[in-house]
Specification:
- By secondary structure, this protein is an alpha+beta fold.
- The chain has one domain: Glutaredoxin.
- Helix content is 53%, strand content 10%.
- A 5-stranded mixed β-sheet has the order 1-3-2-4-5.
- A hairpin with a 2-residue loop joins β4 and β5.
- The longest helix is centred in the C-terminal third of the chain and has 17 residues.
Length: 215
């Protein structure tokens, strides 16, 4: 993504809120696969973090990088949709660690899952992302500090972060990113269908249509 566009988006984010920033990203499309992908193990794995009802009829799969500024901008849009469709929608996150340091941020998130503080830590990492994931390189001590402030037991998490299960989760997601053909984040699928074009309204419209079809 064009760095100037990213900086502009984050400036707007600080002034006008996440949703407005997400609109700015409409101008800088992230291309995903052109054809629908059936929801299968390639899109959703048993280990994938889920927000919303596990048995929801509509599933957003987001290929997500915790260091990605556009992922940060879209997080409130995703939360808005979950609040709008509390019984009908779930969100599945697939780790897509394209940025330097993102694999370590994923390990922080996975240790947060083990401690049942995944969503608070996810929100904290995204809120503090400009501090720990600047363009000149990651500062992971600040990511750990943000996670600790959100309720993570940092000492236990650092002991668990290299567990074989977490390494296997990270490897599987990286393999699936390659298999699906993801080249940018965030990339969204709704019930296996990619967005017709990249943007917050496109995501809202596709979710609305899938919810209506499921009723």
């Amino acid at each position: 993504m064009n760095r100037r566009a990213v900086v502009l988006a984050i400036a707007v984010l600080a002034i006008g809120g996440f949703t407005t920033a997400a609109y700015v990203y409409n101008k800088a499309a992230v291309n995903g696969p052109a054809a629908p992908v059936r929801e299968s193990n390639t899109l959703v794995r048993p280990h994938s973090p889920v927000m919303g009802p596990i048995d929801a009829k509509v599933t957003i799969v987001e290929f997500f990088d915790p260091s990605c500024e556009a992922c940060r901008a879209f997080y409130p849009v995703v939360k808005e949709l979950l609040a709008q469709y509390p019984q009908d929608l779930r969100v599945v996150l697939r780790y897509t660690p394209f940025h330097k340091g993102s694999d370590d941020a994923v390990r922080i998130l996975e240790t947060a899952r083990l401690q049942n503080v995944f969503e608070p830590v996810l929100q904290a990492l995204l809120a503090s992302q400009p501090d720990w994931a600047p363009h000149d390189g990651p500062q992971l001590d600040k990511a750990w500090a943000a996670a600790g402030a959100a309720g993570l037991d940092v000492v236990s998490a650092k002991q668990a972060m290299m567990a074989p299960e977490i390494t296997a989760t990270l490897k599987q997601d990286v393999d699936d990113v390659k298999a699906v053909g993801i080249t940018g984040t965030p990339t969204f699928f709704v019930n296996g269908k990619p967005l017709p074009s990249f943007g917050a309204q496109q995501l809202r419209d596709l979710v609305k249509a899938e919810v209506a079809d499921a009723k």
